[in-house]
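U., I forgot to send this yesterday:
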Amino acid sequence: MTAVAGHAPAVSLPPARRSRPYRGGRFVVPLVLVLGLTSLYPTLYSLYMSLFDWNWGQRFNYVGLTNYQDLLSPATAVGARFIGALGNTFVFAAGAVTVELLLGLGLAVVVNRLGFGTGIIRTLLLVPLMISGIVAALMWKVILDPTVGFAGFLLGSLGLPRLGFLGDPSQMMASIIAIDTWWQTAFVFIVLSAGLRALPLEPFEAAEVDGASAWQRFRYVTLPLLRPLILIVLMFRTIDCLKVFAIIYGTTGAAKETESVQVASYLVAFKETNMSRSMTMMVIFSVIVLAIVAVYQRLGAGRGSDL
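Result:
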């Protein structure tokens, strides 16, 4: 490199790097193989077995679409049971997701505005998430027992009648929704609380300068900014509630008032030993869940979210 009088020294540029072929595929292939073995193979196997009448080795006959026709027909016993279980699943999911979203969002807003003790409050709200679903179900089954449970004792001490909760058909669904709310509201709270803390301050300051009230700032600033995150939370909680098993099986068992698709499929497979019909239930249910996920993604795309 030589310098010429009155001119800046010439800079020698390194030779251009030759493009190298992308070799990331060798890291992706094992992941695709694992996903294929754990997801694609069971799905295809279930689709194949749903075309047969398989009763744990006692019979294995090809029946075509008969299982689908029976399950989707309310006139048959299995169809009425499946449609009833599908209805119970949607009622539970709609109730639990609605309550958890409202409660989790409210807690996130309140805790975000507190100036002290937020760490302790967040830790306490996280405690229910640390236990498994079946443990939560069995724990609340004991608590809500009308004879030996704490809830019955408390109602009796207040001079109120002891409610059946998990034993009364009219109260079963509300009881398991309440149990799931206690268990999973913390998930909604964690995600939305993190979202609130990450929101920019400028829109709130501008709204405050314009004289907007606290409710107006929440309605017209906070909610629009949180909308993509709320849709993500809704999608995850909806999927999780639709595949509910432990909470229902551990509390009300096979009661027809609360039997979900997952519980019905389990009982048909391992109590009635009809594996093909159980797989048919899950194939139909999986298609329904995929359709719901597609709706959420469409809503997210329409709102400009990253779903």
